Amino acid sequence: MDRPPLTRPRALTAIDGALALVAVLLVVQMWLLTATLETYLAGHHEAAVPGAIVSALLFTACVGLYLFVLRVDADVRR
Amino acid sequence: MSLLRRPSALPLWRDEITIDAADEGYVTRRQFTKFLVLTSFGMFVGQLWILARSLFARAGAPPAPIIVGRAGDLPIGAARVFHFPSPNDPCLLIRTGAESYVAYSQKCTHLSCAVYFDAAKTRIECPCHEGAFSAADGRVLQGPPPRPLPRIRLQRRGDDLVATGVEEGGSAEVSRAEAPACPRARA
User: Fold this and answer.
1) What total number of domains does chain B contain?
2) Looking at the whole model, is its pTM more than 0.80?
């Protein structure tokens, strides 16, 4: 089944949504880094591994959204 | 300049590397998203740094015990400074009773100011931002410090008080043990 052509307003909405989501993920990642550092300095070293794993997942999601933005942008310019 | 600029017919690289002075300050959504993703990468690197520090801390050898003083030398309610585990780590040895000694890191957990023992209030205070810690267990009593003071594990070996380790935010009592002699701490 063919995809409907991506119009400029729809592309802008998609890019704005992805941008907002990246911003939210970044805020979560900042909070996670702060919380992990605080926990580490309090002597609870066991929080470092799950913190790093969750941060890696958030970073991967950000990269995925960035690739999505690039693809939509390229599609609408075509 | 409007953020909703229409896409030009130019290729992407021409659109980003502009020669138009008016377009110099323009930031596209794509560029802004890239900036956010790079910031996210920075956060991830920070997490990896904490993880590496955590792993190296576990793998490191425990600090060598040192004698911080003789048991009877310190009057009840008095404190003295020693350095443990390295010469750059000042600590406070406090005699809280006839046979009761506690020791804490002298660095405030807020901004690392040097804390001191207030004998009148029997608590440890930070002069920088009026933080206070319990002399009994190092917990925060008031002020901005976010964590208890790291506690130094002490052992009584004959008449000597020996620092054997550091507990981050934990608690420990002076224990008695017979062990070989240790080097004396620098006061």
Assistant:
1) 2
2) no
